[in-house]
Specification:
The strands form two sheets. Strands 3-2-1-4-5-6-7 form a seven-stranded mixed β-sheet, sandwiched between helices. Strands 8, 9, 10, 11, 12, 13 and 14 form a seven-stranded antiparallel β-sheet that branches. Helix 2 links the parallel strand 2 and strand 3. Helix 1 packs parallel to helix 5 and helix 4 packs antiparallel against helix 6. Helices cover 25% and strands 27% of the residues. The protein starts with a strand and ends in a 12-residue tail after the last strand. It has two domains: 190 residues, 3-Layer(aba) Sandwich (Rossmann fold); 108 residues, Methionyl-tRNA Fmet Formyltransferase, Chain A, domain 2 (Roll).
Length: 320
């Protein structure tokens, strides 16, 4: 089978190596200008001696169409594409375009499914390979694979695990296509569909007054690493919280959410949440750098200080 890999995410690299090793990979195509996500893709394609092409948004109708028409692939496998692909291109490959989506569709349609699954505290996710149509993430499904979301999984860790597991899923999907074509695709159940938007700055902000310790931990994990951490404030200045851990406190008193109840060089920083729950702050990023909670105690943070909700902050940038 002759396959073109269309991708903008480094999580496609294990799949790229597999397809190249199986002598199925015709070329790798990346949409948009070079960035920190697509440069590793280009470097890996070069290492594998696989042709690499880059197309800007306005070139999808012309140059990409010409590339596909000339290559005549059996399949275009899509692994993250920020642009809407012109529908007329779907008919060029023998088996069309199939997208690798990191959720169990029809749940968590949208651009950032792993972020939302971890933020919402899901314990099970997975991989869906589906035929692409004009409507995002709604085409008939070729293959699904379920993967647990373990306690403490961050966006980066879970995505990396899905990237590795996707190789086996893609291998089975290719075998199924080779044997039956698109005849055994099955429709998504629209009654159980959910769709989530792209991640905005407000989605990254901690609200100590309304969010539980578990909700804050989920948010922190969902923002690590692509979004640079969950946003809080301290003494009026924004900071990013990158890692936390829920802890039990013996005979806890009732503190205002966000209050620092303990800070020393042995245990680091303990913060009160609502409902008499507590978090240990393990890693933060400030304007001065990235620090452990223990390091912060040496920089003057003391019990009685308070982390503030980030709802009033403005001018904070999303790190991607």
């Amino acid at each position: 089978m002759k396959i073109i890999l269309l991708t903008s995410g480094p999580f496609s690299i294990p799949c790229m190596h597999y397809l190249a090793g199986q002598k199925m990979l015709h070329s790798v195509v990346s949409p948009g200008a070079p960035n920190k996500n697509t440069v590793p893709i280009e470097l890996n394609a070069g290492h594998l001696n696989i042709p690499f092409k880059r197309f800007l948004k306005h070139e999808l109708w012309s140059e990409l169409k010409n590339w596909l028409t000339e290559a005549r692939p059996d399949l275009v496998l899509v692994f993250g594409c920020g642009y809407k692909i012109p529908a007329e291109l779907f008919a060029i490959p023998k088996f069309g375009f199939h997208n690798v989506h990191f959720s169990l569709l029809p749940a968590y349609r949208g651009k950032s499914p792993v972020f939302w699954q971890i933020k919402n505290g899901e314990t099970v996710g997975g991989i869906t390979i589906h035929q692409m149509t004009e409507s995002f993430d709604s085409g008939a499904m070729l293959m699904q694979h379920q993967t647990a979301i373990s306690p403490g999984d961050t966006l980066g860790l879970y995505t990396a695990r899905l990237a590795i597991e996707s190789v086996q899923v893609i291998s089975k999907a290719i075998e199924k296509l080779s044997n039956t074509g698109n005849d055994l695709l099955y429709p998504q159940n629209e009654d159980s569909a959910s769709c989530f938007p792209g991640v905005g700055i407000e989605d990254l902000k901690i609200n100590w007054e309304t969010q539980s310790a578990k909700e804050i931990e989920n948010l922190v994990n969902a923002t690590n690493a692509d979004y640079g951490g969950a946003i809080s404030a301290f003494r009026g200045q924004p900071l990013r919280i990158i890692e936390v851990m829920q802890i039990q406190v013996t005979n806890p008193a009732d503190f205002a959410p966000g209050s620092i109840i303990h800070a020393d060089t042995n245990y680091g920083i303990l913060v009160a949440c609502k409902n008499t729950e507590f978090l240990r702050i393990n890693i933060v990023q400030t304007a001065e750098g990235i620090f452990s909670g223990i390091k912060l105690t040496g920089l003057g943070i003391r019990p009685g200080d308070r982390f503030e909700s980030a709802t009033g902050l403005s001018g904070v940038q999303i790190t991607v």
